[in-house]
Amino acid sequence: VQLVESGGGLVQPGGSLRLSCAASGFTFSNYVMSWYRQAPGKERELVAAITSGSEISAGEMTNYADSVKGRFSISRDNAKNTVYLQMNSLKPEDTAVYYCNAASPLLGDYWGQGTQVTVSS
């Protein structure tokens, strides 16, 4: 099982970045995919999550931390086994290591190694 994040880097306040997380070794479409972040000295926090889309009820659903609503957007491509996080209007307080997570209540969960995002002028 592998989750490989990419797309992090240094960006100025107000800028944008798009993170990608490529998954392999498990049935991607069966998992809820999430992005978490951890800033120095702080606990890891949920940034955004997207359901698998395989539920009968209503396609994919998303959830965002209040601090990123309206600025970040999570999406997934089940054909490519990839989840994305589009981050716009970045702020210095968004600086953190961003982690990809795959979770299933029956199958367990997996973590990527993280990618650094630094927002600074």
What brief labels describe this structure?
4-stranded antiparallel β-sheet; globular; 0% helix; mainly beta; 121 residues; 7-stranded mixed β-sheet
Please outline the helices and strands.
Layout: E1 2-6, E2 9-11, E3 17-24, E4 32-38, E5 45-50, E6 62-64, E7 72-77, E8 82-87, E9 96-104, E10 108-111, E11 115-119
Parallel strand pairs: 2-11
Antiparallel strand pairs: 1-3, 3-8, 4-5, 4-9, 5-6, 7-8, 9-10, 9-11
Structure description:
The chain is an all-beta fold and 121 residues long. It is 0% helix and 51% strand. The chain has strands at 2-6, 9-11, 17-24, 32-38, 45-50, 62-64, 72-77, 82-87, 96-104, 108-111, 115-119. The strands form 2 sheets. Strands 2, 4, 5, 6, 9, 10 and 11 form a 7-stranded mixed sheet that branches. Strands 1-3-8-7 form a 4-stranded antiparallel sheet, with no helix packed on it. Strand 7 and strand 8 form a beta hairpin. The chain starts with a strand and ends with a strand. The mean pLDDT is 93.
- Biggest beta sheet summary: 7 strands, mixed
pLDDT under 50 segments (min length 5)? none
Q: Which value, in Å, is the CA radius of gyration?
A: 14 Å
Mean pLDDT: 93
The counted number of beta strands is 11
Structural category is mainly beta
Q: Which series of helices and strands comes N to C?
A: EEEEEEEEEEE
Number of helices: 0
**Helix content range of the residues, please?**
under 10%
Span of the ends, CA to CA: 37 Å
Which range does the strand content fall in?
over 45%
- Given the C-alpha coordinates, what overall shape results? globular
